[in-house]
Amino acid sequence: MSKAIAVVEDDESIREMLRYYFQSVGYAVRAYESGEALFAGEEGLGLPALYILDIMLPGMDGLEIIRLGGRGTGPRRPGGTQGRKAGGADLQGV
After folding, report:
1. Could you report the per-residue pLDDT of 32-88, keeping only the tens digit for each?
2. Can you state the angle between helices 35-42 and 62-70, rounded to 10 degrees?
3. What is the 3-state secondary structure (H, E, C) of the chain?
4. Cβ(47)–Cβ(2) under 8 Å?
């Protein structure tokens, strides 16, 4: 598995903060502003060690990215952990 992390976050300041942090600890970071950009940008690349997804994205949200990945129509993933921002939706049972 690669030492790359794919980040999907529409808020540029959060996306850049995550990029900065993970690069500072040795990861290559592939950052995207949308689910659609993730699918286009990851095509042909190796599987990252981790996907960090914003659940509340405009258009294709983080939950849809997870669903598509589970059906094999989105980026592959070895497993994942789900989180949420303060005030986000409860993700139990997803």
Report:
1. 999 999 989 988 888 898 999 999 998 898 889 888 876 555 555 444 444 444 444
2. 40
3. CCCEEEEECCCHHHHHHHHHHHHHCCCEEEEECCHHHHHHHHCCCCCCCEEEECCCCCCCCHHHHHHHHHCCCCCCCCCCCCCCCCCCCCCCCC
4. yes
47: which residues sit within 8 A by CB, 6+ positions away?
A: 1, 2, 75, 76, 77, 78
Residue in the block written with tokens 């509340």: 56
Q: Which of 11-15, 23-27, 54-58 has the lowest mean pLDDT?
A: 54-58
Report field, pTM of the whole predicted structure over 0.90: no
